[in-house]
Amino acid sequence: MRPFRIIVPASSGNVGPGFDSMGLAVNLFLELEVSESAEWEFIQPSLDLNLESYEEHFIYSIAKKIADKHQKTLPACKVVEKSAIPLARGLGSSASAILAGIEIANQACELKLSKEEKLQYGTEIEGHPDNIAPALFGGLVISTLLEDEIEHIQLQDLDFDIVVYIPDVELKTEAARAALPESYPRNLAAAASGVSNITVAALVKGDYQLAGKMMEKDLFHEPYRASLIPNYDMIRSEAKKLGAYGTIISGAGPTMMSFVPNGEGQAVALKMKDVLPDYQMKALQVDTTGLKVESL
Ligand SMILES: Nc1ncnc2c1ncn2[C@@H]1O[C@H](COP(=O)(O)OP(=O)(O)O)[C@@H](O)[C@H]1O
Ligand SMILES: N[C@@H](CCOP(=O)(O)O)C(=O)O
């Protein structure tokens, strides 16, 4: 096996009202250098996962699952991992790790998986495609899981900066999903999908004022999660004062994300630091490439 590098971007699921179906890849990356070895070994300079053995490693478990599915034996590998994606903060670390595991199996077992197969496998494992699809394809992707296939569309030519506000607390996606209703009455579902439809149409037209306004009117998940997110109302109102188009919960939270005019990300991040001194603040861009594999 030739050594290789896998690079997967972080992603932000939902983008407001696109619950479980809209997501955006951003330029924070998980990087793995993989080479054949006498035994499995994970070296992680930027993550402290505190695992007893490689078999407990999430990425290993995904790679093994995919190899088993194809009746292949996964060769032992040394994996050197660097990650700039914070865990359990709503920036899609689990989706990036799932894609990394799928890609290790793909490369090490020579499975020749298509992008569609990676999307299918990743979505089966994650349960929803909104992080897997942008982390795989890059950009802002709208996707939906049908009975036996996943439809996806990538929006082009986006023109905004992104600012993320990352608090020093974790919120597991599973816990944030438990806060949501099991079902929605018809009038609420109709209103919520109306908000979502206008958001997408406004993004396609490049009307970011309208898109941002509608992002903040989500009815599918934000109203139920707001109380789990530190400083939810304050972050929305302070970002608005600084000219943000709109501010949303990133994925299941607790990170929040603002969409701001192109070129203004750094300035907004700096000013928001005054009101959120304990937060990690980052001005980000859309990653338009998605999952990459390079030879070493
Ligand atoms: N690079 C990684 N290596 C190993 N496990 C990971 C990695 N990234 C994420 N995970 C697993 O995924 C969990 C976070 O998933 P989740 O609660 O869905 O949050 P997120 O919003 O970051 O996707 C972590 O606690 C860890 O178990
Ligand atoms: N649509 C999902 C998105 C979860 O994203 P994550 O980055 O928090 O794992 C949800 O809202 O539960």
Automatic annotation (TrEMBL):
Pathway: Amino-acid biosynthesis; L-threonine biosynthesis; L-threonine from L-aspartate: step 4/5
Domain GHMP kinase C-terminal per the UniProt entry, residue ranges: 200-277
Claim: Transferase is one of the keywords in the record: yes
Enzyme nomenclature, EC number: 2.7.1.39
Catalytic activity reported: L-homoserine + ATP = O-phospho-L-homoserine + ADP + H(+)
One BP annotation, GO: threonine biosynthetic process
GO cellular component: cytoplasm
Domain GHMP kinase N-terminal: 58-139
Biological role: Catalyzes the ATP-dependent phosphorylation of L-homoserine to L-homoserine phosphate.
Family per record: Belongs to the GHMP kinase family. Homoserine kinase subfamily.
Record's protein name: Homoserine kinase
Source organism per UniProt: Oceanobacillus piezotolerans
Top-level taxonomy: Bacteria, Bacillati, Bacillota, Bacilli, Bacillales
